[in-house]
Every structure is written in C-alpha cells, then in structure tokens.
Amino acid sequence: MKKSVTDIVEKHNVLRNGDADQHIPSLRNADALTMLGQVQPHLDSLTQVARQVVDSFQNDLPDRVEFQSLADQTAKIEPAFLTSMDRVVFMIADQSAAEINRLI
Q1: CA dihedral defined by 66, 41, 15, 3, rounded to 10 degrees?
Q2: What is the dihedral of CA 88, 49, 77, 85, to 10 degrees?
Q3: pLDDT of residue 70
Q4: pLDDT at position 8
Q5: Half-sphere exposure of 61 toward its Cβ, with a 13 Å CA cutoff?
Q6: 36, 35, 34, 40: which is closest to 77 by C-alpha?
Q7: How big is the chain by its Cα radius of gyration, in Å?
Q8: Is residue 15 a contact partner of residue 36, using CB atoms and an 8 Å limit?
Q9: From residue 50, how far is each of 17, 66, 91 by CA, in Å?
Q10: Is residue 56 within 8 Å of residue 66, measured between CB atoms?
Q11: Average pLDDT per run of 10 along the chain, which is 104 residues long?
Q12: 42: which residues sit within 8 A by CB, 6+ positions away?
C-alpha cells in the first residue's frame, strides 16, 4: 500500500507537470490545471489517511476503532476526489480528441 500511495502521488505530478523521460508533456489546458488544483486538497487528504493506515500496520495490527476511523475518513474523501479527477480526465481526453481531429 505504501508503494501505491507513492505511485498515485507521482502519477498526479506527471499528469500536471509532464515527464521528459517518459515523453509526457506538461498539461497546458488552463481549465484542467485549475481543476487539478481543486483536486489537490482531496488527494492530499487521501494520501495522509493512506499513510496513517500504512503506519498503523508498521508495528502491529491497528485496533478496530482506529482502523474504522481511517476507513470512514477515506469513505468521506474519496467520492469528491474521484468525481473531480473524472472531470479532469474527461476534459483532457476531449482536448486530445479535438487536437487529433484538427490534424485530420
């Protein structure tokens, strides 16, 4: 799970900033960049809770109350994050399709 959290944060940064090694350009769509900025607090909250889950398993199994609390926090944050990210992804897909259609 620790690797998954790191991967999600890295992929989010690549989406925003690009990655020259992978030949991924930085995001240029101002609306999508604004929306990613609005998604960031949700991502930060999710990664914080996920890290707490990972940390709670470091020494021993977390107690049931602690684990339920972390699960409840995730359940509250995740829908807003996923809805916002869907909007960003669809906006980027639409922009890419439009750029391809201009080339045809």
Answers
A1: -20
A2: 10
A3: 86
A4: 87
A5: 4
A6: 40
A7: 17
A8: yes
A9: 23, 13, 27
A10: yes
A11: 84 89 87 91 92 80 81 92 92 88 89
A12: 77, 80, 81, 84
Q: What is the DSSP string of the chain?
A: -HHHHHHHHHHHHHHHH-BGGGTBPPP--HHHHHHHHHHHHHHHHHHHHHHHHHHHHHHSPPPHHHHHHHHHHHHHHHHHHHHHHHHHHHHHHHHHHHHHHHH-
Distance between CA atoms of residues 88 and 93, nearest Å: 9
Nearest C-alpha neighbor of 53 from the set 69, 76, 75: 69
pLDDT for 48:
92
pLDDT confidence of residue 27: 84
